[in-house]
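Box 3.1 A note on notation
Throughout this textbook, protein chains are presented in two layers. The first layer is the amino acid sequence; the second is a token string describing backbone geometry. Keep the layers aligned when reading.
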Amino acid sequence: MRAALAALGGLVAAFCALCVAELVAALVRPEAGPVTAVGGAVVDRTPPAVKDFAVRNFGTDDKLVLQLGILALLALFAMAVGVLALRYRRIGASAVLVFGLFGAVAAVGRPEGVPSDALPSVVGAVIAAGVLYFLIGRLAPTPAPVPAPSPAAGETGPGPVHAPEAEAGPAPSFDRRGFVIAATAAAAASAGAGYVGRRLTASVQAGASASRADIRLPVPDSAAPAVPPGADLGVRGISSFVTPNKSFYRVDTALVVPRVDAGRWRLRVHGKGVTRPLTLTYQDLLRRPAVERDITLACVSNEVGGPYIGNARWIGVRLADVLREAGVESPSKGGPADQLVSRSVDGMTIGTPVETVLDGRDAMLALGMNGEPLPFEHGFPVRMLVPGLYGYVSACKWIEDIELTTFDAYDAYWVKRSWAQQAPIKTESRIDTPRPFASPRPGTVPVGGVAWAQHRGISRVEVRVDGGDWHTARLGAADGRDTWRQWVWEWPATSGHHTLEVRATDGTGATQTSHRVGTVPDGATGWHSVVVDVS
């Protein structure tokens, strides 16, 4: 019973730590909370293969799975420390402090970490150590007094003296009632602190939400043409030509989505070859000529046939105009910088070739997505976009800093983790319908999906069945070379098991390779295939 209560005491102490830390983090930075800090440290040190496994199996829920895993390990650690403290009270309390120190180091060691980020973990650990020490004290045994033996009844006069038989005394007791009252009071007080912390964080986030709600996107000086008729083939099962914001993929390392007040946001442009450093506000960007473009984004973690790609209508400011205002020249024109390093408010760094940004494509600092200000999950207030490059080398969300440097001088976040410095998007295609292991009926079966080769465009898509001849699919209308294209082929299906394969040819005449490789270091290749059972 004492061991079980000691384990419970450890859990209560851990709960107190997390709640108090949440309150302190609300006063410091929500991202400085211990679970977020430790989770971020785990993400930073995760090998690419493990990261790809998480994205592939958990999708956008990978962060939730990581946080639940951290909480589960914390619970096991807390129970073990509680049982340890039952025998070694001070050592158990000290172990809690060590764990808090680990959280503090993780918080300060994050790319965006500052010394004050250690406070939530440290204060939470101190409170937890005190709570554990006090609760274990309530479990200390208090032996009951043993009554002195009395003379036997009817005993008269002197006689031989016999030693009384030893009797087992009552079992040592402990203050169970005091433990329950103390544990309940500590948990209740900590829950109150956590509630206050959440309210404080919510009030800060409310300011950011209000700043987003007040934004009116500018009328673009260079508007995107209407999506041409026939771009969306209207075939059931094919991904919508324009991806709704709520359905747009999200792959990043932020365990807590940054909520930045647009009124306080600043963008600094500086570095090698910058003759006129700039500091821009959100209003500065709103006053500049705006461009609107349909652009398809793709994540380098997208496996062959994967879901991490989406198409949206973006509005923003030409990045090339901002760089030229700062005096930046491309390397081909003598500029000393060949890499643009964009930094996010959460410390993420992304390296982009300067030559690519300045080659005339619609690279932009995006302010809006599908007719509304950027959602927080997709980079509000400002994110960077460069058509034709995978997101990890171009699409910095929550951007706040642009530094001009060289690839020799600096490796961005993902490059340090075995990914390539430069990564143009590869020509790819995907079968959306029929789904894997579907059972269509014999007869005409539409086989359709999407193909993409941003900044080169798609000129042809072909489908084959069971390794036979290739058949040319019908393409949806092209909406520029920076978006994907829908395609469909009417398959005269016959009964049996069949394997469908697809390949695309881009606007340069290059056909998608059949060679299957994984996502590391610069994107997956291979033909997407689907197995169906026609019956």
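The first helix runs from residue 2 to 28. The chain is about 30% helix and 20% strand.
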